[in-house]
């Protein structure tokens, strides 16, 4: 187990480093100049642009720029945003709670909805419950999250005169306003996650419910809830955990889009703005940070396998 963790940790470092190299090169290759985005067309003379470029260190060789950034990041000196001029650590501190809460709420809602709908659909196979679940999952997979988000905003604005709150309201400051701010974006993101996970819950439960030990458990006179939750669900949960892990990594992409749609001041919205303004340090850090979170989630999922199924060995 220790050797496995060491190997995964080294792989984590290698993966995050590789992502940082790729995103560094991509940002330098794509069209657009951060200085022109900062100053605007015709907003500065060539001499002024050259001076700003020199002050920001953008005139140095790419290799030097990258290793300077890497060394500063290792020392937790994240630098400043080219566009806003603020410390990136400040942006991370103020925006991370928004993204974190949205991601956690989306994941919790999606897992709860998937378990309920998947189990009910498996137990009520080929009934109207099952058909309703299939419509729910197909719609969740087919409809783009950004389109659903815009539709939700329009309906809420027309029916309840509600508009997204731009300023973040902490939960402990105003729980009602906070939940109202997050519940609709979380549901929009969670719909697709619930559809994918729910389908896996349904198929796994159907497979497990046909096993001999389930028939034996019922023949012994065990209560149906014990058969379902203690015997069937636990054995059906291994592939479900895999899907949840994959969807948790994809969740970050949904967060980026939905934060933009609902005007939520999180890291996803900061990333979109940073890409638009060619804010190299901000994009470099945020993409690397998201890659780090993704790899960590995958590691947690792999370790969860061993907890769910003791037969799995990491040697």
Can you describe this structure?
This protein is mostly helical. The protein is built from twelve helices and no strands. Helix 5 packs across helix 8 and helix 5 runs antiparallel to helix 10. The chain is globular.
Walk me through the topology.
Elements: H1 2-29, H2 34-39, H3 46-56, H4 62-74, H5 88-123, H6 128-142, H7 145-160, H8 175-209, H9 212-219, H10 224-261, H11 267-276, H12 280-308
Key words describing this protein structure:
single chain, 315 residues, mainly alpha, 12 helices, 78% helix, 0% strand, globular
Give me a quick take on this structure.
With 315 residues, the chain is mainly α.
